[in-house]
Amino acid sequence: MNAAVRSAVRVGITEGHKMFAVNDGFEGFYKGQIKEIKWGDVGGWTGQGGSLLGTKRTLPGKHLDKIAEQMRIHNINALLVIGGFEAFESILQLYEARADYEEFCIPMCILPATISNNVPGTDLSIGADTSLNAIVETCDRIKQSASGTKRRVFIIETMGGYCGYLATVGGLAAGADTVYIYEEPFDIRDLQANVEHLTEKMKTSIQRGLVLR
To answer: Any keyword Isomerase (predicted)?
Structure first.
């Protein structure tokens, strides 16, 4: 996210725009935590994880008046929101309020950045690939820890909320026996089938199982 902010700020300045940074998402926006951000302010941000501007899941819906007021005060002509599903929802709320507030009749853009990779209409979000690396690395270590002991089944929980992307692709990459996700409701019969599969597997030379959810 920091690399994205850095790129956005420097490209904007190069194109002759005045760039402002908002701290703590839309909560900071309506509280007026807005300051101009210069070329040097984003130096060295590329390799830094997390978000130096700060993120909040607060949606703008209840504070549209204050947000419109801040846009007027700072004379904001365009908005770039870097974030996940909440960012998508926020932009949608601002878009739907355009009839009531002329301040929102500006170009508004969302840059998807979430490990869950669950922003509608996008293929890949910033952070999803890094989190997959972490999942696969962890699965490899867990498999290695079981290489000495026999008859072990590991159940690994991933992040991602209601979106099964991380679990599915992580399971594919790590070679999991099965993956449980919200998109595919499973019942006791599916569990039974998987347990039977694992029982059969334990009779072979590979006596370990890996389940992701």
So the answer is: no
